[in-house]
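Thread: quick sanity check before group meeting

JM: Hey all, I'm pulling together slides for Thursday and realized we never actually wrote out the predicted structure for the chain we discussed last week. Dropping the sequence here so it's in one place. If anyone has concerns about the input, flag it before I start.
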Amino acid sequence: MKYFIVAGEPSGDLLGSYLMKSINKMDSNADFHCLGGDMMEAQGGEIIKHYKELAFMGFWEVAKNLRTILKNLTICKVDILLYKPDVIVLIDYPGFNLRIAKFAKEQNIRVVYFVSPQIWAWKKNRIHKIKRDVDTMITILPFETDFYEKNNYYAHYVGHPLLDVIHDAMKSDDWHTFKKKNKLDDRPVIAILPGSRKQELQKMLPIMLKMVKYFPEYQFVISKVSWQPLSIYHSYINDNTITLVGDTYSLLRYAKAAIVTSGTATLETALWKVPQVVCYRGSFLSYIIAKLVVGKHLKYISLVNLILDKQAVTELIQGECNPKKLRKEVIKIVSEPSTIESMECDYKQLIEIIGETGASDRAAKLIVNNEVR
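JM (edit): ok, ran it. Output follows.
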């Protein structure tokens, strides 16, 4: 079969690559066109647009880049018409993907949504577009199926594919090899996960790196993404002892604590059972718009807290995300046993909620076998 897969950010590229790997095992004639990244390309996908040209963060940033986004939508639609896929698989990224779903439905192409948009948290009216345009919804969080059921729409729950990714990452280097490869010393590691978008790096790195001077007994290691130039990171690094590492999972495997920009990384950090502080700062205008649009619907911003429906990890948002408060919270996650134990307990509950490994295979089976609502 011919599969057209759309992933608009790094986490989607990762989950998409695992899905493609599973599809390849079940369909020897699988052929892929993708909006995605290097990991999806490594699984045999022809990348018609890289996600680094799609990733815009915040209401204002999206508005500023609207012409580029519309151009990318056109490129995507044209390739769909030329490629004539048997099925279109959309991975999260709802602002873009729901438009593609509508277009695909108009062309009588089967539409599968893998990784549901978080409409249960905000923009619940999007359920109408999903019911109209999406043939098969595949969810990765158990309570999402309950939300869809209440709205008279059937969704298939498969579990969270990050468990598959982390299971594979367990085979990575041991501490001695990781330390030697990255020229680290024997001090415990605090991981910095500043995000992947340029806007995130510009907002988050300067604040996160202010922690270095307060915790000399730790070594700080930044998780970098391959598609951002080193110059962006180095423009904020004043201490030559700070290390950049491209393998986030190896870093989390050996980290004692982590400072994390809100996003999928918060869940990844939790699945590695690393105590964390979640940070987020956007442009002032984007923040005001977000408060007006989603503030009354959303109690939390991190996936960990959203899934558990409680504040398991501290969130420092906008003005709260400052060096003084961040230092206070980092002290807690590296030296307060009660904070660390409480977080470990919450992480255990989180893992129980999101299920077992094998989610990618289960999702691929639904897609290959054409299982609908």
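AS: nice. The chain has 18 helices and 13 strands. The first strand starts at residue 2 and ends at 7.
JM: adding both to the slides.
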